[in-house]
Amino acid sequence: MSGQSQRLNVVPTVTMLGIMKARLVGATRGHALLKKKSDALTVQFRQILKKIVSTKESMGDIMKTSSFALTEVKYVAGENIKHTVLENVQNASLKVRSRQENVAGVKLPKFEYFTDGETKNNLTGLARGGQQVQLCRAAYVKAIEVLVELASLQTSFLTLDEAIKTTNRRVNALENVVKPRLENTITYIKGELDELEREDFFRLKKIQGYKKREIERQLATAKLFAEEQFAEKVSLKKGISKNSAHSLLSAAAEKDEDIIF
């Protein structure tokens, strides 16, 4: 029963055998391609994981530096520097845009920052703490760059993780379900076709034996009829009974002599 549950319910014919073989070839080719895709995605996944670890390690130092720079600005320029900066900023100079990168058929989202226009708040903190404001701005720009890179890596990480799980499920399904089922079906069809061939061969031998026996029976009947005819002629020529003619013919056949009329 387990063997029957692991094969398809098909009619064992030569045509179906060809169809199953073609499906097995397609499944084998698809399994190989998906396996290569899974390996490529796994390599990319590990590379992204290494980048995430290194980026997170550097992010700690960068965020600490930027926070310390903000503290220096507040110490030098005072607590009201926040309102001064907000008044001088009209539009964001750093923006983020997204694009897609194709890795083995999987589209990974990528985020990158870019500068839109020129910075117009260079006079911020000119009266007091201007240099510290510019240093703080540079520190936070670097922090934004790291955060954008980390967001891109983590988004790609999650996308790749889901793609690898899906691909591995398909690989396992092809390897453990589809291919064995097709192979068992092909084995079943071959066995049935061989059995049909043996039955046909046995049937042909039976028919041939029957025809041979029929020919032998016909030859024996013809020989017996010829002997009856010959015995009747001998009995008429010799003037003896038919039984005596049979006996005479039998004796002549044993002595290998011819009957002379």
Characteristics:
two-stranded antiparallel ribbon; single chain; 5 helices; transport; 261 residues; Helix Hairpins; ion transport; disordered N terminus; V-type proton ATPase subunit D-like; mainly alpha; 8% strand
What's the layout of helices and strands?
Elements: H1 2-5, H2 14-77, H3 81-88, E1 94-103, E2 106-115, H4 130-238, H5 242-254
Antiparallel strand pairs: 1-2
Protein name: V-type proton ATPase subunit D-like
InterPro entries: V_ATPase_D
Keywords: Ion transport, Transport
| CATH class category name | Mainly Alpha
Please indicate the percent range of residues in DSSP E strands (runs of 2 or more): 5-15%
| Anisotropy-based shape | rod-shaped
Widest β-sheet, arrangement of strands: 1-2
Radius of gyration: 50 Å
CATH topology tier name: Helix Hairpins
Q: How many strand units?
A: 2
Provide the structure class: mainly alpha
Largest sheet: 2 strands, antiparallel
Number of helix segments?
A: 5
N-to-C series of helices and strands: HHHEEHH
Mean pLDDT: 80
Report how far apart the termini are: 80 Å
Keywords: Ion transport, Transport
Protein name: V-type proton ATPase subunit D-like
InterPro entries: V_ATPase_D (IPR002699)
GO molecular function, one term: proton-transporting ATPase activity, rotational mechanism
